[in-house]
Amino acid sequence: MQHYPILSIVTLFLGAFLTVIFGSKNETVRKFIALVASSISLILVLMLIKPVMIENNVIQYWMGNWRPIHDWAIGIGLEVDSLGLFFGIIAVVTIFLSIVFSFRYTEKDSETDKYYVLFLMLSGSVLGLVFTGDLFNMFVMIEIMTFAAVGLTAFRNYQEGALEAALKYLVLGSIGSSLVLAGTITIYSQVHTLNMAQISALLFNNLTPSTLFAFALLLAGYSLKAFVVPFHPAAPDAYMSAPSSISMAFSGMVNKAGVYAIIRLVYVLYHAMSFKSIQLLLIIIGTITMFVGVTMALAQNDFKRLLAFHSISQIGYVITAVGVSTALGLTAGLYHALNHTLFKGLLFLTAGAVFYATGTTDLNKLGGLAKKMPQTAAVFLIGAFSISGLPPFNGFVSKWLVYQATYQANLAPVTIVALLVSVMTLASFIKVAQSIFFGQMPKEFENVKEVPLSMRIPMWIMAILCVLTGIFPNFVTKYLISPAVSAALNVGKYIDIMMGNGYAEKILGKPVEIPAVDYVLAGYWNPVAWLVLFALLLLAVTIVAVAGGFNTASLPVDGDDSKYEVFFGGEANEYSHVKGNDLFWGLKYDLRHYFGFMHDAHSGIINDYALWAIFTTTIFIVYIFLLVP
Amino acid sequence: MILVNYIACIILIVLGFYVILTKKNILKIIIGMGLVDYGINLLIISIGFNPGGTAPIFTFSELRPESFFVDPVPQALTLTSIVIGACVTAMALSLVIKIKEKYGTLDADKVRRLNG
């Protein structure tokens, strides 16, 4: 059991190397290696649930058995507490489903051996990041992650903009990595250790200007990796140009790695959430992130770019909830992180399926695909309902918790923004559903077929998980979220396991009690009742449709009767699908100054994006120096 | 004098960021990234430096009670960081070659097909 974490990481890296050696010639071999490596890693991590989540152990592993000497950590240690494991589970599920999806999805690409090598490296580095207990190891892992992610962004380099997106990602990513490295080394210069447990113990109530400076650098660096708003503009480009299975991995685990690092930093390393000003900083950037993300998404015309902006917006919810820093707020944040992985992964997979079937993701070219791809349309609707927060799907649960947490913390304006963002999310998914799956189908898509089974299976697994986490929030909270929240709020245990018993108690004092989240406050909301209502409505609609109640037969088909057709200037209009651009033009017109400003701000020039990142870092540094005592 | 190191590394980092922010040639932006990297490497080495310390490698005959080392950990970190920096530069340069082939220019103002 003690060796599971390191084995789960090493398996993925080993898979990458084996793919280089044996997989370069044979397609089957490389698929086999990728599948075996990702499933072994999945099984090993899932086997950690029982000891870590339920029995509440913390697993520690010293590389090369270099244990601490005289209470001083000298080796590199892995430490898996329930917070790390929570993100680990998110990562391995994403990896496994994404690999299964890519088997058929990448069949038209050449050189897929490089794809699997980079993908396995990306996966291994994310797992390494969430399982490590060493600050510098975190930097190395995040750098491997950026590196592999850039390679994968440019994988389809014949596509419009893929190279450009990769370059932007690389430049911004290495600015982030430089900030992280500078922060790490500044901490090292103060405390002379890199072990996170020991740093956490040494920094408690012991903040100097140097460590505060390091905090600002690390926070900015990890925010850049999580793509919160002023650092975000490389993200939509990268998500849009990468293959969809990779976009899913980006929003499912690369983003989450940044979120994990922020949580680890503010809660565990610095105990910073006792400062009101740090809470406020996280809540402000979170709120800005969710608002800017969703308004940018409203104006997009590309399916994947739109999803990318929604991804940014949902990360805003997570950061806001994490910033609230009560047990309820952290529960909301982690729950939303889990749900975001599920529904956004699902939506990116449907985007991949649409691309696989039609060869485009442009909202203005697609239409009426629900007739040809009914299963993709069904899972898309589940994903869209989930992200928009409709009950009984999972987005509702976590968004409700976010509203509740922010409102209880006397942050009513934030609650209102969160509600507004949720409404706009729904609006933009109405637009997507209308312009891709419903309405009139363009002539060139007559021969479109449903995607193959191996692509549908991951989508259905994600969809089922979306429904399950929506219907059984009590189980999810009890077995996954609450242990993770407890690990984030009770740092003492994390330190004790690594440094020996009693090390933390003399510094930290008593552990914090985690109140049980019982969903009593959720009012009249009963997920099972909503599911029954949903099923009844679905049944009713089906029965009416089957019984001919909608009477579709009486409508003219294929222009039997010209009086039902759409006319334009006296002439029958041949093709009159309501496109993505045609929806919400009133809203866009009324807010044209805002949209114009935001469009100009995302200018696509690397220098501008770098300026945003460095400017925001400066603001972080100044803010933290001025407001944190 | 160790202070010179700190001043130099801050100058390197600031110059690197200046290049990234103001130069429109993508190749120069990558040189800027390199400068930031070198500045941080110098910072790491300077943090581990003890005036008068020897290299952290010894044999039994050399070890005397009055001898002391420079901190070996930052040196290991610097090595890692240099390797990563070299990889990033190589990757960025390969991207630049491809961009030059595809766009026909290295001007950051023209390499902006993805925007808005």
Automatic annotation (TrEMBL), chain A:
A single BP term in Gene Ontology: ATP synthesis coupled electron transport
Q: Which GO terms describe its cellular component?
A: plasma membrane
Q: Where is the signal peptide?
A: none
Q: Where are the transmembrane segments?
A: 6-23, 32-54, 83-103, 115-132, 167-191, 211-232, 253-272, 278-299, 311-335, 341-358, 378-396, 416-438, 459-481, 528-550, 609-628
Task: State if Transmembrane helix is listed as a keyword.
Answer: yes
- Matching InterPro entries: CPA3_Na-H_Antiporter_D, NADH_UbQ_OxRdtase, ND/Mrp_TM
User: Where in this chain does the record put each NADH:quinone oxidoreductase/Mrp antiporter transmembrane domain?
Assistant: 133-425
- Membrane topology summary: Multi-pass membrane protein
Q: Name one Pfam family in it.
A: Proton_antipo_M
Q: Which GO MF term does the entry hold, naming one?
A: NADH dehydrogenase (ubiquinone) activity
Q: Where found, per UniProt?
A: Cell membrane; Membrane
Keyword Signal annotated:
no
Q: Which UniProt keywords apply?
A: Cell membrane, Membrane, Transmembrane, Transmembrane helix
| PANTHER family named among the record's database cross-references | NA(+)_H(+) ANTIPORTER SUBUNIT D1 (PTHR42703:SF1), NADH DEHYDROGENASE (PTHR42703)
Q: Which family does it belong to?
A: Belongs to the CPA3 antiporters (TC 2.A.63) subunit D family.
State what protein this is by name. Answer: Multicomponent Na+:H+ antiporter subunit D
High-level lineage: Bacteria, Bacillati, Bacillota, Clostridia, Eubacteriales
From TrEMBL, chain B:
| Compartments it resides in | Cell membrane
State the Gene3D superfamilies in the record.
1.10.287.3510
The way it spans or sits in the membrane comes to: Multi-pass membrane protein
Q: What domain of life does the UniProt record list for this protein's source?
A: Bacteria
Instruction: Pull one GO CC term from this UniProt entry.
Output: plasma membrane
Transmembrane stretches in the record are 6-22, 29-49, 76-97
Q: Which UniProt keywords apply?
A: Cell membrane, Membrane, Transmembrane, Transmembrane helix
Q: Which InterPro entries match?
A: CPA3_antiporter_subunitC, NUOK/Mnh_C1-like
- Name the family: Belongs to the CPA3 antiporters (TC 2.A.63) subunit C family.
In Swiss-Prot or TrEMBL terms, this protein is called Multicomponent Na+:H+ antiporter subunit C
Lineage of the native species? Bacteria, Bacillati, Bacillota, Clostridia, Eubacteriales
